[in-house]
Amino acid sequence: MPLTGGALAKYAIKPELGYGWAGLLGSASAAGSTLLMLHFLRLLAAMPKPADAPGMKTPVMIVWMALAFSAVAVPWILFEPVTGFRLAAVLTPGSWISAAWPMAIGAALAAAISWSRLQLPAIPPGDVLHTMVRFIVPAGERLARAVDVIEAQTRQWPVAGMLLVLIAVSLAVVMAT
């Protein structure tokens, strides 16, 4: 979103990414971020509102407003000292157009998904954990078995003794240089 910390971060990283594949992937991530945030807002709006929910207490509201303000203000305050870019450069029409087209693609994708009533796959609760269990854990189990085999070999006294001597000699060489 324009005028947010995310927009400032993308503006600061664009010159480093360049205009090749890395720049294209950066723009694709901006489009994906827009799509994701619009999907989140659509789901948030569709949530049922409890009729008897009490309003937010004033101290909590003050803290929430202070955090929201800080999330927008702090990146603007720190932008120039941290990046070295002039803050006025972010507000030029060219930078706005450069930031707008990936957002327009993300918004168009969100509209197309919403309009088509495409049923997106359900994400189970604890989706990161689900992904880990499904993909990473089997790889981790294979790695653990390999480590067990290596450990069984190195537990044998001749191998362990040789490794201990090798480590001691390596440390001695490092300390001598």
Précis, in short:
This protein is an all-alpha fold. The protein has helices at residues 5-17, 21-46, 58-83, 87-90, 93-116, 127-154, 157-176.
Describe the structure.
This protein is an all-alpha fold and 177 residues long. It has helices at 5-17, 21-46, 58-83, 87-90, 93-116, 127-154, 157-176. Helix 1 (5-17) packs antiparallel against helix 2 and helix 1 runs parallel beside helix 3. It is extended.
Topology:
Blueprint: H1 5-17, H2 21-46, H3 58-83, H4 87-90, H5 93-116, H6 127-154, H7 157-176
How many DSSP H or I helices? 7
Largest sheet: none
How many runs of DSSP E, i.e. beta strands? 0
Q: Distance between the terminal alpha carbons, to the nearest Å? A: 54 Å
Task: Name the overall outline.
Answer: extended
What is the average per-residue confidence, as pLDDT, rounded to a whole number? 80
Radius of gyration: 26 Å
Strand content: under 5%
Order of helices and strands: HHHHHHH
Low-confidence stretches: none
Helix content: over 70%
Counting helices, strands and paired strands, the structural category is: mainly alpha
Labels describing this entry:
177 residues; mainly alpha; 80% helix
